[in-house]
Amino acid sequence: MDRDDGPVKGKDMSQLDVIADGAIAVKDGQVLAVGTTTDLNYFQAKKRIDCKGKLVTPGLVEPHTHLVFGGSREHEMALKQQGVPYLDILKQGGGILSTVKSTRETSEQDLFKKATFHLDRMMSYGITTMEAKSGYGLDYETEMKQMRVANRLKASHKMDMVSTFLGAHAIPEEYKGDPDGFLDEMAAMLPEIKEKQLAEYVDIFCETGVFSVEQSRNFLEKAKATGFNVKIHADEIDPLGGAELAAKLGAISADHLVGTSDKGMKMLAENSVIATLLPGTSFYLGKENHARARDMIEAGTAVALSTDFNPGSSVTENLQFIMNLAALNLKMTPEEIWHAVTVNAANAIGRGDQAGKIAVGRNADIVIWDADNYLYIPYHYGVNHVNTVFKSGEKVFERGGLIG
Ligand code: NIG
Ligand code: FE
Questions:
Q1: Which of 306, 313, 323 is nearest to 284 (CA)?
Q2: Are 154 and 121 within 8 A, CB to CB?
Q3: Residue ranges around ligand 1 (CB below 6 Å)
């Protein structure tokens, strides 16, 4: 609850600010005061909500999703069960490319409706600020369509939305064998995206068989020159050196980091790049190795957590389940996990000054949980523990159904 807007790094992530018998005063959608019930007792509140001893936290922040897409990929489950690797499914024209086909075929209005459905569900799980990437168009028209949908949601939905351009997500059939030609086409879109303010960040999938470190560097340098800050899908499957590249470019975050080298981890810490970890993806892809959160925290890095919500590698809107996985598979402590889904996640999408904390002058984005302490959420897995969600002081979800 301090005034510093930056991320909480390394061992500081284990110091959580908790008020026993806490109270929050809210006015005009903003936090007016925070303290104990005794401290705040003098307020002549028009309306009082008795939280009945339940846990109350900032709204969760979700820093990495592929929210806007057409179709779904349940037909690929059998391939996964037969052991066909994720990147092989992609090579055969499935995976991301299957969703590209569906997204191209889906109208803007239908994409908007479908994304709203997922967005409502995210809010019901306690998320009040989130990021959404494009990347299932891989052509001018469809990438623009996806970003327009994200921006329409930003304007119309209660959720605070941050849009990212991920045109460099895979190589489409029409550019097979010519990744550089494809990247040129995506790079040519950058000035228009900037001018129309369709995205705040530019991301790339730096991976074996997708884009190399060199191609990623080239592309992201163009993005930076156009005025974007950048993110990287780095070392998700193979340890290519995406983390090192993120550090050299001064990316706001490097995401996944399952295969990151010791040197890469050190460079992330030294260059204050936030490590956004997505343990749902390792879980869903059936991987035995996990991002080395303990080593990253030891090195002094700020770690954030995310669902990676997408139709292929992590099909869930439930960030609470990711908190369970972070405890079980990344060996993060509950204190670290809460920082990772609030203040650090907010900083990973440039919202450190607005979201991720309950502090005076900030939006009253608040969750009341069906739990009486913060250890409980990473412990009891697979269900929704949310009792009530407030966005800017307004009740937007209550157990039992959406309101408004
Ligand atoms: O973060 N790795 C690349 N992109 C997504 C998966 C997208 C998909 O499979 O549709 C990810 O894992
Ligand atoms: Fe992703």
A1: 313
A2: no
A3: 66, 95-96, 99, 205, 233, 236, 281, 308, 310-313
Cα–Cα distance between 86 and 201 in angstroms, integer?
Answer: 26
Does the pTM surpass 0.70? The reply is: yes
Query: Is 62 exposed, middle or buried (CB count within 10 Å of its CB: 0-12, 13-18, 19+)?
Result: buried
Joined tokens for residue 183: 């990247």
User: ∠ at Cα 270 (293, 135), nearest 5°?
Assistant: 65
Residue with the smallest CA separation from ligand 1 atom 6 is 313
CA of 317 to the centre of ligand 1 (A): 14
Distance separating alpha carbons of residues 134 and 86, to the nearest angstrom: 20
Which residues is 130 bridged to in the sheet?
A: 62, 161
By most ligand atoms within 8 Å of CB, the mutation choice from 258, 313, 314 for ligand 1 is 313
- For the chain, residues with pLDDT lower than 50 are 1-3
Contacts of 262 (CB under 8 A, 6+ apart): 295
